[in-house]
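[job 4471] stage=fold_predict status=RUNNING
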Amino acid sequence: MSSTSTSDKAAALQAIQLNHEFNFHRDNAYAATHLKTPTAQFEAGDSSQWKHWPSKESTMETLLQAAFKAGVEASHIEVKAPQNKPRGVFATSTFKKNETIIKIPLSAMMQIEPNVARFNFKANQYRGRLIDNIMSSKPHQELVDLYIDTLPDDFNESLFHFNDVFLRTSHFGKRVALNLQWFKNLYLHQQDTAGISFDELVWTAMIVCSRQFTLNGQHYLVPIADLLNHCEARHNCRFYFNEQEKAMHFVALRKIKAGEELIHLYEEEMTTASALLGYGMMPSRKVSKQRADVHYIFNRKLYHLTSKPGQSLLPIVLDLYFQNKDQIKNQSKRNTLNMLYTQIKQDLDQQVSLRLRDKNQAIAAASSDWEEHIIEFIFDQESETYTQLSQLLTYLINPKMKLKPQHSSLKKVVSQFEQVLTRFTG
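[job 4471] inference complete, writing structure tokens
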């Protein structure tokens, strides 16, 4: 692929209307029907016209200088990529707690209009509004050009490009496939997509999804600020918007020494979905165990499972109970519940076995270490969550059984679960 100019890269942003997050809600019937046959590839659009622009590390220093000219105050930082680590922003001097590290005026930001978040391609109304408004309302042309030039070349390693085995067998993969299908339908049904490839649509959506900041209800692309990395365990700064100064301030949460990386939170409680789909990064295993984000399809219904097994199991049991209420009305409540528990447990145990088989097949079909690593993480998280629910059901079926020390917390979960269940079933 040949490289192209910054103006061509701007055209990709210019041609496409954006959404700032991947929140696609589907009802259970739709999900149960459509999650069975996801498609990994998409042929619509001329992908040969999709350009790959080089992101030059040497441009970063020039970008910083252009940002300073535009009013950004951040003289004691540097952007670099340490050996075997991702690029980040680092302090070049010591900052005290609550001291401002970076100050970015509103005039140096690139606003994303509210109508831009609607994915509307209609040329007469919205086409070109994103870059046009940046260019017309901001005097900092050099900053805009350099910022666009340093954006990622592509998102070819996003989950949308993962192999079909993963998209077809993992419940999280099916969720990705559903989002991909939504994009396909969007692309095919727009009235004015001439000259716009499907890859351009996904690239532009991912740029905004992974980089936008929300200030007073407005969405912005913010040079320099979007180079800071995220870590829940190690974040050392936060940002706020000073209404009087019309500027974003990044301030130190503690003393930050020279040479230390500046890290903030993209989200307060990031889930697996928001990390992978929203930001294209690997979630922490420790955090993900505390905040599981797993889906489970049972009886043609889609359920969202969390790290709280009682809350996760309750809607599954209630749906099955009321679905079979007429057939089981002559049985005792205990026998009825045990029958339902057994039915759900058998399916969960089968799903755990399938996770192992499908994980191995999906890993074998992976085309990169990154894809292999994510696939292993997703399948393991699903297996662990299903196993946890199966253990809970085992104890619900046999409440007198002796629990292993690592499962002792289930007693409290069982007690709370049965109390809530009684409210609904009498």
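[job 4471] summary: The radius of gyration is 25 Å.
[job 4471] exit 0
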